[in-house]
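anyone seen this seq b4? input:
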Amino acid sequence: MFNILEAPFMIEMIRTVTNMYAHGWDERNGGNVSLLLEEEKIKDYVNTDAVIRTIDIPFDATALIGKYFLVTGTGKYFKNVQYDPEKNMGLFRIGKDGHTAELLWGYNDGGRFTSELPAHLMSHITRLSVDPDNHVVMHCHPTNLLAMTYVHDLDEKKFTHTLWEFSTECIVVFPDGVNVLPWMLCGTNEIGEATAKKMETARLVVWAAHGIYGAGKDLDETFGLIETAEKAAEVYMKCAALSKVNTIMDSELKELADFFKVTPRQGYLDI
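predicted toks r here
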């Protein structure tokens, strides 16, 4: 077996969560990331027949039986992942009963996956049905998006339009828009179900007064998706109390979409 810490997916995971912490998105043990991995990518790094232990999953993950996930641990600090990956993350397979994680590597202090795992798995199921190439679900607490939920209407069309309007890149990066949930108790199947439902129509789901969920094909894309929305939210928050003199008109947003060959969410541009 090769050293799993030298695996491309592990190097990218460590780099990504380290960047998330450096951006101020994941204070203390805030935030979590799950990466769906194909057996072909991991078989040279772990023995898939050697299950270290099993961990109960408080959710029926039957739709994901046999799939492999690299997931950050509960109560773990992203700032520590680079120094001790095997303590702060785990690689597991969804067991044949659909209610068990078969640990193959990691959580070596007796820990377990993030408490938000049901929400992650529900979102994975939804996004795979929309796009089979979506392999990442990422949750974090970007400062400006969080602040924006306190001062901006939570209507999804209005929230999306503001982000599109306050940064030229946004309509190109997430033409499907941003969906929004009102405050809900985190760590529950209820918020997971609500998030997964929102994932049917957008790759970004804002949790009011909490943070954001993003989904994408790989870690880089998903990080960039959230980063782009957060930049627009930062610009908005700097301008929110000021009189707006200039803006990007809907006709110009349409021009952007046409030029970059993306389709804005239907009904979100008033043209």
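The beta strands are 32-37, 53-56, 68-72, 89-94, 100-106, 136-140, 179-181, 204-207, 211-216. The chain has a mean pLDDT of 97. kinda curious what u guys think
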